[in-house]
Amino acid sequence: PGEDLAVAARRELEEETGLQAKRFITLGNFFPFSPRQTSVSNIILATEVKETKEIHRGGDESILRLRKIHVKRVEKMLQENQFKCGETIAALCLFFLSKKILHKHYKPSL
Question: Taking 70 as the threshold, does the pLDDT of residue 100 lie above it?
Answer without folding.
Answer: no
